[in-house]
Structures are given as structure tokens and as C-alpha cells.
Amino acid sequence: MDASPDLPRQGRVPVFNLPGIVTISIAVLAAIHLVRTVLPDGIDLSVLLNLAFIPARWTASFDPSTAAAIIGAAGEGAGGPELASARQEFARYLVTDPSAMPWTGASYALLHGSWMHLIFNVVWLAAFGAPVARRYGALRYAILALAGIVAGAVLHLLIDPYSLMPLVGASAGISALMAAAARFVFQPPPPFEAGAPWQLPPRPPLQTIPELMRNRTAVLFLGIWFVTNLLFGVLALPLGGGEGPIAWDAHLGGFAAGFFLLPLMERGSLRNRP
Hints:
The protein has helices spanning 20-38, 41-51, 55-62, 67-74, 81-96, 104-107, 115-159, 171-182, 209-213, 216-235, 248-266. The protein is mainly α. The chain has one domain (20-188, 202-272): Rhomboid-like fold, CATH 1.20.1540.10. It starts with 19 loop residues before the first helix and ends in an 8-residue tail after the last helix.
């Protein structure tokens, strides 16, 4: 008679130790960028203009009276007269028949400025998207990322409403996932005595803000994240291989969305119960 315990069936070992939704996210971003690299320049420019988030286009759409101010601001940027003239021509193109293109408040996250920009984002997505997806599942992961993307675009618009620089990249959504993960990954698991070898410990609860501020590891991570973003934003330096300076304000908007929205995701989460 076989007295061995009835162990749970073991699934196949995945090729990549990432939740499926994170793997799909990475694959979609990589596929889109790969397709863009083989498109003719004219078509790729059309993709950029129709999917990237351009604050000045939204500003002119909401308030057409700002058209003159947008064109004037375009001529005041850095660079010589030829570059200033080109920016003003682009501004005139945007404000002649302005349309906010509301989908660009989310679709900009599908585009990246270079392979290095994409790789940089993918590394952070794998690191911080994975724990969020494992804890909350694909739907809540997607909601948090999308909320961060939209919040990043909104804050970027509020801070730099006349900007003609197309905003691209998934960094705001990844920042939301970073903030969400920071609420629970930087703490030891709760005390647990397993009744059977295959039983897993319960998931640690979310830390409150006071608890998080007493967690030295979490405070160090948050401090480095904020200082890095503000430093590169103030110095207008590229980060992660992008072709332009990072949109620190979009990152901040995404981070705030993930940090404060996560407790709402926690409520009623069956995945979080031991």
C-alpha cells in the first residue's frame, strides 16, 4: 500500500520565470518596436504623430486661443534659428486643426525611442511588474499600469502644456508598478508554520505609509528613485538610451497613481488571502 502523501501536481517549469501577463507585455512592446524599425520613415512618423502624447496638441484642442502662445513658445527653445523655425512650423501644423486624440493618453506607452530605451524599461517591468502580477493577477496588474500611464500623461500635460516633444515609453506605467510593489516587497514574510511541506506562507499585508517610512530598505529605494528622476529631469539628460530627456513628471504621475491606487486593489482580493 502506498503511504506517500497526495502531493499537488507539479506544473511544467516555464522557460521564463515571469507571470504570463508580464511576458505578454514585454513581447508586445518588443514586437511594436521591431515593426517600427522596418517601416519607411514617412509611415513611422505617421505612427508617432498618431500614437505619441504631445501636450501642445491637447492644450490647443482644449483651448484654441492658446495657439499663438504655443507657436511663440516653440521659437524660444534651445538651438539655432533653423531649429526654432522648424519647431514653429510643427507647432503651426498641430494648432491648425487641433485634435486631442484622446487615445494618445495611453497609446504613447506602446512606443519607444530606441532599443536601449525599450530594454531599460523591460528590465524594470520584469523586476517590478512580476510581483504585482503574482499577487493581484493579470487584470489588476493591467489596471494599475494603465492608471499610471494615464496619470503620467495628465501630470506631464499640466506641467508642460506647450511642449511639442512627443512623449513615448511605458515608464509611467512601470513607475506605477514600482510604487505598487514597494508597498509590500520590502518586508519579511509574516511568521508561518507550515503544516505540510508544500504549503506556502501567507502573503505579507500592504504596509501603511507610516510603516513604509520606518522601513529603511523601502525608504532607500524610494529616495533613490525620486532623486534620480528629479536629477535627470532638472539636468535634462537622457536616461536608458532614450533620444531625449526623460519625462520625470510623467514618471512621478505614474508613481503616485500606483502608490495610492493599490490599496483599492487590495480590497476584496481573493489572491491575497492565505
